[in-house]
Amino acid sequence: MLQEFINTRQYSEQICQVLDLEDYLLQPEEHVSPAKWHLAHTTWFFEVFILEKYAKDYQLYHPKYPFLFNSYYELKGERIQRNHRGNLSRPSVSEIYKYRKHVTESIVDLLKNNDSPEVEKRIEIGIHHEKQHQELIHSDLKFSFNENPLFPVFDSNFNEDDQEDFIGEWINFEEGIYDIGFAGDGFCYDNELGRHKVFLQDFKILNKLVTNIEFLEFMQDGAYKNPLLWHAEAWDWINEKGINSPKYWHQIDGEWHEFKLNGLQKLDKEGILSHISFYEAAAFAQWKNLRLPTEFEWEVAQEKFNWGKRWEWTESAYLPYPNYQKASGALGEYNGKFMVNQKVLRGCAVTTSPNHSRPSYRNFFHPHLRWQFCGVRLAK
Amino acid sequence: MLQEFINTRQYSEQICQVLDLEDYLLQPEEHVSPAKWHLAHTTWFFEVFILEKYAKDYQLYHPKYPFLFNSYYELKGERIQRNHRGNLSRPSVSEIYKYRKHVTESIVDLLKNNDSPEVEKRIEIGIHHEKQHQELIHSDLKFSFNENPLFPVFDSNFNEDDQEDFIGEWINFEEGIYDIGFAGDGFCYDNELGRHKVFLQDFKILNKLVTNIEFLEFMQDGAYKNPLLWHAEAWDWINEKGINSPKYWHQIDGEWHEFKLNGLQKLDKEGILSHISFYEAAAFAQWKNLRLPTEFEWEVAQEKFNWGKRWEWTESAYLPYPNYQKASGALGEYNGKFMVNQKVLRGCAVTTSPNHSRPSYRNFFHPHLRWQFCGVRLAK
Amino acid sequence: MLQEFINTRQYSEQICQVLDLEDYLLQPEEHVSPAKWHLAHTTWFFEVFILEKYAKDYQLYHPKYPFLFNSYYELKGERIQRNHRGNLSRPSVSEIYKYRKHVTESIVDLLKNNDSPEVEKRIEIGIHHEKQHQELIHSDLKFSFNENPLFPVFDSNFNEDDQEDFIGEWINFEEGIYDIGFAGDGFCYDNELGRHKVFLQDFKILNKLVTNIEFLEFMQDGAYKNPLLWHAEAWDWINEKGINSPKYWHQIDGEWHEFKLNGLQKLDKEGILSHISFYEAAAFAQWKNLRLPTEFEWEVAQEKFNWGKRWEWTESAYLPYPNYQKASGALGEYNGKFMVNQKVLRGCAVTTSPNHSRPSYRNFFHPHLRWQFCGVRLAK
Amino acid sequence: MLQEFINTRQYSEQICQVLDLEDYLLQPEEHVSPAKWHLAHTTWFFEVFILEKYAKDYQLYHPKYPFLFNSYYELKGERIQRNHRGNLSRPSVSEIYKYRKHVTESIVDLLKNNDSPEVEKRIEIGIHHEKQHQELIHSDLKFSFNENPLFPVFDSNFNEDDQEDFIGEWINFEEGIYDIGFAGDGFCYDNELGRHKVFLQDFKILNKLVTNIEFLEFMQDGAYKNPLLWHAEAWDWINEKGINSPKYWHQIDGEWHEFKLNGLQKLDKEGILSHISFYEAAAFAQWKNLRLPTEFEWEVAQEKFNWGKRWEWTESAYLPYPNYQKASGALGEYNGKFMVNQKVLRGCAVTTSPNHSRPSYRNFFHPHLRWQFCGVRLAK
């Protein structure tokens, strides 16, 4: 655990090695946070959930940092409005690295002398929390760089797209009762617990994710102009926002390009489709006369295919499992309060940190969001 | 069927007998439609879905009425923006009654000589469609009158609240596989079809709806100020809108009143709670350390209790059943395109028209809406 | 005065004789008020500024009417939000006519026994106040009817356009000191008082208003696409709102039409241009390499030309004259508090009530508004 | 001129010496621009208005910089939306300094070999343009730092407040004809030209600016709660925004503080009032039963008092002088297109660059803006 903690803390900083100092500050929209904020917030998490409570005589590093770096924990007090995170040039990036160092060392000290399982459990949560933010650093920088007409390159070696080259095939499953939810000894979030039975009808699921060329056909068939393919609020959304392609696609001189972490590229037609909303995923499935899998079907089927390049939209709403119990205290705010109006995504993305996801992992976003690396797997 | 059609058409007009002419025009918010619009839209529905297609040589009553009275059917062409419905003083109310008479008589003629099951099926849909709007006329007028500082009375004899006077008791159900969805020969909507099996855990459900006094205790316990009880977006919603009580509650000179269809009344503490959002229903359940039932639990349990005074919020998201098939053509827009970001309500309300609801009926609203007669039944 | 009072009260009601009952309620946008509100508000004005103060033992007609019918007088207490005026179906139109009758008779009684010059002065203000609202009833109904795809006719005999058929000629004025402001014994508003000297340069002004054909040439020259003709905020305004013609112009099957009080008509090319904003007036003048007159030039020149069909935009901002004194009490809110960010209009419109305007009259609107009968006279 | 050019270019960079690298990027609101954008935009101005046209064989430094650094010149092509200026981490600050160096050197080369008066005239405009942005860098950084709960210090030695310590006295002026507008040989903007006669009534003006203590009395008298003191739209503005003090005043533990370029300070009661809107300036004058001077009174009177610490709001609207001629081409967009809905300010501020203002200088802002160093001088 000590090593995993240290590795995780280092990896966050390693991701940012390629940045210019000014890049750390970008927040072009409310739901995108600056890289420096992510570095500080993950540090704050360890400070207030662990050090303040369990490290003897621990003093807050700075009295105003909790106000600056709390995200949404009501029980942890007032905080800066989310859309103001990008307005903070101070503390400077170098100051935030000092803050990180101080808290990392304090946790290491605590761990060395610790025999409390609660401390260990919380550090484990903190590690996974930081891994989630590592993924967000990638997504947020991609979003921010895409706003810049110069299209800066994050890392010219980053490969978003590899898909094993095999034929898409349907995998069949029989109707019956299946067990759903986390089983085993390792770490999981509270929203995966309460393993329980679910009755599923017969279903088939594809062993391959949708590719760019398939989505291009959907576009070329006029799908963005055909109201019958779309949910009513999806139709309003594409028309109000003028949406007619996946998020990072740009038509330049009549040719489709895609902005990626390795820069602006010609669209790779065999590449895996990414950065679409649930609305678009569902309209695409409708156009194919197919559907998205439920999260239960996905969990049952996942052993039979490779996953891990894209978060995969499911038809399932993000709801509590039977017997769901929120954690007590502020950690209870981690998951439960988001269980309305969001969709479950399963799997993980090319930007997800190592050892973070698992078959029972439940990610969730609002159906219009598409700045994450989200893709589509079809079912029927 | 002929008689049911005639009765339904008459009942819509009967509801409006108590109105002043000016009352027909009110649209204080976008989601509320004027009574005259409801009267015309339900008529348009019969005209374009039935007469235009099946009545020989039928001519549209007026070439611009489809533009004025289409609600959301993309396949039926352009239409006036929803929030402009209240800006139409013409056609006048008396002209709309003439339009109704013309279409009603044309349908009667058609029905008398009809032997097409498709015509019959569509008229049945049209009848149920009009019944839904009869309920909306009540809800929309209540909303509109509540905006008027004079608090006009809709009908001084209308009784919203009767609840049989019995003790709330928990009813128990065993875990197992249950059948869900419409079974039988009568009418139902497409979203109830595809009867299928669902596995349910053990659960208990109350035989009684929540009353005003119980919700008052929730309020007096500071629940609207306690973020831990609320979904994150519910918390934002109550704070942005300044919400601190059910929709039609007014504190006047220190005393709670409730605006009802029979006018402004002192709050009846034993009355059945009404006009709360899903957000408030869920927070209330959380405060009780209980939960809302799922729509499946409700359907399984409903034989064992009385229902019919309030639409009952469930925890379930409004999603397609397995094997759900949208109707073809514009009627396919009736239900399916709303299957995202809404919650299922079961039962029916004191304002629901006779012979309209049934145990498998799936009503649905966005979780913040509360201008319908929505209430709460608890489960655990 | 008694007769003028009675005539004015009658004329308001006469204007409304052509309306359907539902027409009285229309408020399609916040700045447009329902006809029934105008009828009630002008009545409220007499009630609270005169009867309440000067009529012995006068009792308010209804305790909530001041809340419903106060427009913007902070000293007269709380009032309904402006954009909610259209949500009030009650009091009914017939009830408002009763209210009018009651207040009219009470004022007549008061006037018959009155020897207070203050009462007389206030009734005079009330008369002119009601005349302003008579014009607004026309403008607001035109706006409201134009929102209806059926284009209802207000009065088929109403003639908006007569312009004496003469050649436009420049009238010359010498530089020098001129006297500006009201002089004489009759009624005027406080904003015209404080007659004072102004130094004017040489100027020329046209004896004729701009016609539709001239504005059509401006449009056909691409003026709405040429940023150099527009103020910066005008440019933003036309682009955000998609404005490319005067307000009531409609292109139908390739031909320009104009919606008028006598219904939808083919554009009369010789007709007087109307319903344009200051922004458009200024851009038009710029396109002609001319300019709008100042309000001082207009006042000096007005004897030499006919005016009275359109309110004429001037370049002048609506500012207090030197030595301007606001009336005391709530009547001081009549004019002074609007003296920022508005433009002065001079003259009067075809809808202005008889005996209302005069050469020193200062009308004022925000520069983007165009639902009044506003036109253009050019100067250089 | 060469030396003035070099000095001006250096001074912009000198202002920024105190910044952290991250500070250059801040744009907390649309009307505030990042320091790095100011540095680049002033450079772009020299590049496209001078080098591109007059320097032989000049090549644009970077093909996309015009898109990034044009502010509002429609004739100079498309540009990034104003509120996106803060989203550009690239080009980096160091890259922008290189861009500055390149353009500065190119202008120096051009100037050395130049004998065109047009080039000289344009460089002079460019110099004054850059001086305006030097002031904006101060104002924008003050605004941005004030958004940060840590209240960063711009420069601990910056003194905003000195006011010579003398008694406020009224200076009298006789009615008569005065000459207004720029006279002389030096530089001025087009909006000051067209020297012309204006007739002024008798007036008196104070030789001293309003101080913080005076405004505090206004506040303590409940002025922000008294609608009679405010323009109607000012009253809406203070209530919508919750405004109850000048912009940078903060009440901390019951004591008023002021955020300044030298950091958060206790309010200096003798300090010169700053950062108020026109709305507040006018309400304050109304409360004193005085008024603001017109811009003509100010220009006539300015010889008799000291000015130069604050931009002084006048009652005058920003309108063209008689015979105003816009410059041709894109430079004509510099001033004229803003001549509606803005108020004239006269004088200059403590942050205005040396040799920039003059007695005939006409600054202008919308009446609600207050992030500039604006103050009040009273007249009657």
Tally of domains of chain A: 2
Put simply, the count of helices of chain A is 9
| Largest sheet descriptor of chain A | 4 strands, mixed
The CATH H-level homologous superfamily of the largest domain in chain A: paralog of FGE (formylglycine-generating enzyme)
CATH architecture of the largest domain in chain A: Alpha-Beta Complex
The general outline of chain A is globular
Oligomeric description of these chains = homotetramer
**Which structural category do the helix and sheet elements of chain A fall into?**
alpha+beta
| Radius of gyration from the alpha-carbon trace of chain A, in angstroms | 21 Å
CATH class of the largest domain in chain A: Alpha Beta
Number of strands of chain A: 11
Mean pLDDT of chain A: 95
Beta-strand fraction estimate of chain A: 5-15%
> Biggest interface: chains and residue counts?
C-D, 37 and 37 residues
Spans where pLDDT lies below 50 across 5 or more residues of chain A: none
